[in-house]
Amino acid sequence: MMRAFVAVVQHMSFGAAAERLSVSPSFVSKGVSQLEQSLGVRLLIRTTRHLEITGIGQHYYESCVSILSAVEAADDRARDMQRNPRGTVTLRAPHSFAIFYLAPAVARFNEQYPDIEITLMIDENPAQSLTAMKRGLDLALHLGPMPIPGLIAKELGEAGWSVYASEGYLAKKAAPLLPEELALHNCLVHVGMWPDHKWHLSSPLGAKTVSVSGSLSSNSILVLRDAVMSGVGISILPDYFTADGRGQSLVRVLPAYTGPRRKFSLAYARDRTVPRRVKIFMDFLVAWFRASPWNS
Fold first, then answer.
1. What pTM was estimated for this model as a whole?
2. Model confidence over 95-115: pLDDT tens digits?
3. Which of 82, 99, 127 is the last residue of a domain?
4. SS3 at position 9
5. Which whole-number Å values give the CA distances from 107 to 110, 111, 240, 244, in the listed order?
6. Whether residue 91 is found in the same domain as residue 224
7. Closest alpha carbon to 288 in 262, 267, 266, 261
């Protein structure tokens, strides 16, 4: 019952908690109800569209996480004696990273540690990922500075961004030679990174800020990448889209200029005991990303 309650709070969903525990949603719901009855308190407020933890529930949840972490640590110590790490590691990550680099990384990790199960949660909202860490989930892969206190960031590397178009687009319209010429092009903007539609570009000769506009804006970098590859327009994209021979139809324009460079790291809760299986996965990802050709 305690594990069911913790899983519901971590995912803020009975369905997702049930999937995590490999049981039915009704089993999870019944378990939480029985726990509330045995305690004589209301832990969660449920409606058809909303789930909220009560004040008592929050205090009880924090105690449960500590207890379960201690149990996991004891279990891991016993398993360490057998040199056979096992269990589940949950990692939240941005969509593009998960598709391009985490999927093959997880596949290779599973070959080396078949008894460690990886749950990879796709999350385009960095704030949600980091908040999930505060609720006790294992790891989040985060791009940029760490805005939430109480988390430890283990740096993995740095990713660069550049201006890209497709061969098809450039066949119809000459490539810009200066940042100011972007005003003449259909520029596709990531609204999360450039909500004011101003691109900040750097070069050895200095920085440039240009106002851009176009037919498509999105909060998904994958949507923008696909639009660029289809010849819709020009956008600033991560350089890892073209690493390892990927994105062959993408052509870098304004090569003397670069977009932002964003550090990426693994985040985990400072006040939580890190199980050995999580440490093994973290060490694996550190080595994996340091060997990536675009990570410099």
1. 0.66
2. 877 887 788 889 999 999 998
3. 82
4. helix
5. 5, 7, 19, 17
6. yes
7. 266
